[in-house]
């Protein structure tokens, strides 16, 4: 699907200029490719409509640039964007200018069709192993998504990428042997009881050192802040050294009691 987007070329650069745009309710953006890099000012409403309509796919955008010194009309891919994790506002957008005559490589969503697979109706468990596909094609034939019919899958059956129907002008770049979707057999009650019994049979003494080690790491992380978190593996090793060093003291006390 192709979208229309009107943007304005801006001159001011830097984080300060980007913050000012956001305070004004605009979205800073960048247009890369074709020998130049242009800084953009984007209306958030138009950008959000594209993001919602595309639903995770690569959006093909027809740009109208106000203030551009050349080529006011261009075609680009909306490849990346940043969203405020608290307020949900779009903070930044990256667009890459493309030529309609040159192949592009993008990732597109993979949709399952055909309804509930036969194996799932019999109690099997559906595994959607691949959520998107890496493809190569000309911009004019870029699909919004790739469809895979999994309705005929029985328990213990699956579809590999090589089984997915080819699309004209589109080349799949992922491993043909990669599993796309499968239906696994449900876990039997006997196997579940066996796993539970194995967990219950584990000696309590074997669990104590693990709990102690975890407690030490957590305590050190709380005291050291982010630096302690980054050094968690070193903390584990340090804790091990403390326990080994403490063993001789315990042996000494026991010897003194016997005397």
Low-confidence region ranges: 207-259
Number of contiguous helices: 7
- N-to-C SSE series? EHEEHEEEEHEEEEEEHHHH
Q: How would a crystallographer describe the biggest sheet?
A: 6 strands, mixed, barrel
The H-level CATH homologous superfamily of the largest domain, spelled out, is Ribosomal Protein L25, Chain P
The best one-word shape is: elongated
Number of domains: 3
Distance between the termini: 88 Å
Secondary-structure-based class equals alpha+beta
- Output the strand order for the largest sheet: 1-3-2-6-5-4
Return Rg in Å: 29 Å
CATH C-level category of the largest domain: Mainly Beta
Tell me, rounded to a whole number, the average pLDDT.
80
How much β-strand is present in the residues? 25-35%
> How many strand units?
13
Briefly note the CATH topology name of the largest domain: Ribosomal Protein L25, Chain P
């Amino acid at each position: 699907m192709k979208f229309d987007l009107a943007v304005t070329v801006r001159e001011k650069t830097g984080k300060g200029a980007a913050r000012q745009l956001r305070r004004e309710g605009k979205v800073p953006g960048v247009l890369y490719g074709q020998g130049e890099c242009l800084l953009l000012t984007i209306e958030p409403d138009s950008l959000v409509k594209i993001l919602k309509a595309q639903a995770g796919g690569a959006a093909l955008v027809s740009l109208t640039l106000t203030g551009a010194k050349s080529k006011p009309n261009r075609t680009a891919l909306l490849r990346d964007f940043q969203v405020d994790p608290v307020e949900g506002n779009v903070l930044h957008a990256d667009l890459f200018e493309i030529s309609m005559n040159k192949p592009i490589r993008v990732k597109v969503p993979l949709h399952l069709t055909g309804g509930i697979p036969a194996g799932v109706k019999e109690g099997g468990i559906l595994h959607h192993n691949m959520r998107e596909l890496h493809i190569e094609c000309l911009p004019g034939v870029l699909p919004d998504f790739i469809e895979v019919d999994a309705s005929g899958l029985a328990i213990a059956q699956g579809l590999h990428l090589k089984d997915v129907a080819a699309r004209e002008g589109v080349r799949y770049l992922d491993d043909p042997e990669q599993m796309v979707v499968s239906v696994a057999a449900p876990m039997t009650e006997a196997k579940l009881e066996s796993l539970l019994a194995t967990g219950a049979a584990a000696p309590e003494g074997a669990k104590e050192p693990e709990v102690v080690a975890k407690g030490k790491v957590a305590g050190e992380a709380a005291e050291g802040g982010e630096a302690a978190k980054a050094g968690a593996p070193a903390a584990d090793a340090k804790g091990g050294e403390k326990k080994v060093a403490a063993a001789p003291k315990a042996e000494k006390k026991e010897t003194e009691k016997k005397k």
